[in-house]
Request: fold
Amino acid sequence: MDLLAEMNQKALDLGVPISVHLDVTYRCNERCVHCYLDHNDHGEMTTAEIKDILSQMADAGVFFLTLSGGEVLMRRDFFEIVEYATGLSFNIRIKTNGVMIHEKEAQRLRELGVEQIQISVYSHRPEVHDAITKLPGSLKRTLAAIRFLKSQELQVTIANVLMTPNLSDNAGVMALAKELGVQYTLDPTITPMMDGGRSVLALRAPASEIKKTFRNEALVGDVEKYCAPPPIPDSETMEEHPCSAGHTGCYVSPYGDIFPCVQFPLPSGNLRTQKFLDIWRNSSQLKEVRSIRTKDLPTCSTCSHAGTCTRCPGLAYMEGNMRGPSTADCEKSFLRTGIPSANMIRQLRSNASLVQIQAQ
Amino acid sequence: MSEKYISRSTAIAARLLGNEMMIMSAVDSTFFTLDEVATVIWQAADGKTPLSQIAIRICEQFDVDHQRAERDAEQFIDELAKHGILLLSDKPAINSSTQQER
Reply:
C-alpha cells in the first residue's frame, strides 16, 4: 500500500472527510452537449458563505479540495476563494475549461500554490471541440490557457470524454497532450442530467469504441493485465465498501447542498442550515451509504466482477437503487474482460423467458 | 554558531490526520507524512523561532537530549528543504507564514 492509500485508509478508520469536491458555480461560458448541469444561478453561496464552509472543512480534516463548476472563473471572487483556501493549507485542484485563463490568471494560480489544473479538451480539431462546447473559438482559447499554465510550471491534465461526436479524435487529443507536456485522461462516462433527464445518454460511445480504449496500451498500461478475467471474489471482497463516496469524501453544490459524490445526487444536508461536521457525522443518508458493503448488493454480490468492477453507486442510485447494479459499469466490465456480469446474465434470462412465453 | 530559522513554503498543503501531519508539495506533488516529533518542528516553522528553541521544545515533549534533538531536527529540515517544503534562513522572517495551523 502506498503512502497516499495508507492515509486514505487512516481517514476511513478515523471517519475523516479527507477530500471534498466543491462546485463554486453551475454557471458556464460553454454549453457542452454532454453536460449534466442546469447553468442558471438559483442562489449560489456568497463569498462569505464559501469562506465559512472552507474553514469548517479545514477544521474537519479535509485535505484535498477540488474546486469545480460550471466554470469556476465565472465567479468574480474565484481568486479570493482560492487565496482563502490556500491560507487554510488545502491541497487545491481546479477543474476549468481554461477559456478565461490568460497570463495574469495563470501567474496568480501559481502564486496561490494550486497543485493541479484539469482542463477539458474534447478534440484536437477546432470544428469538433467547438461544436461540443458550442462556443466558437473555445479550443484555441483553451489551448492558449494550457500554454500559459505550463509557462508557470503548473501541473495540467487534459480531460477528454469519449462520446459519439468525438469518437475518432482520442489519438489526436492524446498527441496534443504529449506535445503540450501535460497529462491526459479519457473517460467514457456520460452521466444523466441532474434533473433526471436521460437524453444526454444518447451520446454514450458505442461498445466497440469503449472496447478499443480498453485495449489501448497508452491509456491502460498492461492490456493483458487490465483485461484479465476477474479473480473469484472472496470473503474480504464481500466486506468492502463500493467506493470513497460518503466514506472519505463528499460533494458540495454551489447552493451548499451536500451529496456523497458529484455523481451521486442523494441529498444529505445543506450547509446554509447545518454545520459541515454535523452533516458529515449525523446525516442519515450518509450513514446509509456508509453501511453498504459488497455483500449487501443483491445482484453485484453474486457477480464474478465483484472484486474488480468500477461499479458507481451514484449511477446505480440514478438508475433507481443505490444497492443495484450500475448498468454502464456492468457493460464496461464485460467489454474489458469479455465475461458478462451477473446483471447482464439475469437480464438475458428474463428476456429468454419472455420469448418462451411468447412461443407458447 | 549562527542561528537557523525555518519557515513553511506557501506552495504546501498540510493537515493533521490523527497524530500524523500530511504534507503535499504543489510543485511536484511529493507527499509526506510527519511523525509526532517532525510535526512539532513543522508547526514551529514560523520563520521566527530559532532552531535551538525548537530543539528545546522537542526535548521537553519527547524526553530526548538537546544535542540529539537538534541533530535530528537539522536532518529533517535538510530533507524537506531539498523538496522546497521548508525554507531555511539565518535571519528571522519579517512576516510569518499566512497559512493557518489545522
User: Anything to note?
Assistant: The first helix of chain B runs from residue 36 to 44. The CA atoms of residues 45 and 52 of chain B lie 12 Å apart.
